[in-house]
Write a structure and sequence with these properties.
binds zinc ion, alpha+beta, peptide deformylase activity, 23% helix, hydrolase, EC 3.5.1.88, globular, Peptide_deformylase_sf, 4 helices
Length: 180
């Protein structure tokens, strides 16, 4: 099974190369990535980008919950975003609101309430090579933006530093604020 790489690893901070031809190798990669994603536990992953398995190609998959089909994004670009990032409440600052926490399989046990636009329009190709333009909202909007960042070599922890959003580390069943 494909191994999910963790930071720091140079492939995670390298922009991915566009895919020119969706051939058998790409289809195989998608199958293998899906296997790695659905078999990941604690936490259950909701998305995985090719660089996270050491392949620097512009491809990611999402699976917002275990009962929906995996969706494949090839050469994706965020065309448009809308909706103010959710404002942080005071409550969020003191005690982390776990519902709004974003994490990454490549940055284990680290969580943060990163502010992201609520809707994102993404242009991409599906596995059949068909060009799509689609709006995403809610959890899907967060996931697609997170995964597009991966393809640009950007980890969510870097964005947290830029936005001065505190990071939390899992200690058993508690989240503790990471001291800067
Ligand atoms: Zn990630």
């Amino acid at each position: 099974m494909l191994k999910i790489l963790t930071a720091p690893h140079p492939v995670l901070t390298t922009p991915a190369t566009p895919i020119e031809k969706i051939d058998r190798k790409i289809k195989r990669l998608v199958v293998d990535m899906e296997e790695a994603l659905v078999n990941h536990r604690d936490p259950q992953g909701v998305g995985l980008a090719a660089p996270q398995v050491g392949v620097s190609l512009a491809l990611f998959i999402i699976k917002p919950n275990p009962s929906v089909e995996t969706k494949v994004f090839i050469n994706p670009k965020v065309r448009s975003i809308t909706g103010d990032p959710q404002k942080k409440t005071k409550k969020n600052v003191k005690a982390p609101d776990e519902e709004k926490m974003e994490g990454c399989l490549s940055v284990p046990r680290i969580w943060a309430a990163l502010k992201r636009p609520r809707k994102a329009q993404v242009e991409y190709q599906d596995l059949a090579g068909e060009k799509k333009i689609e709006w995403f909202s809610g959890l899907e909007a967060v996931i697609v933006q997170h995964e597009v960042d991966h393809l640009q070599g950007i980890l969510f922890t870097q964005k947290c530093l830029e936005q001065k959003v505190p990071l939390y580390e899992e200690h058993g069943d508690k989240l503790e604020r990471v001291k800067a």
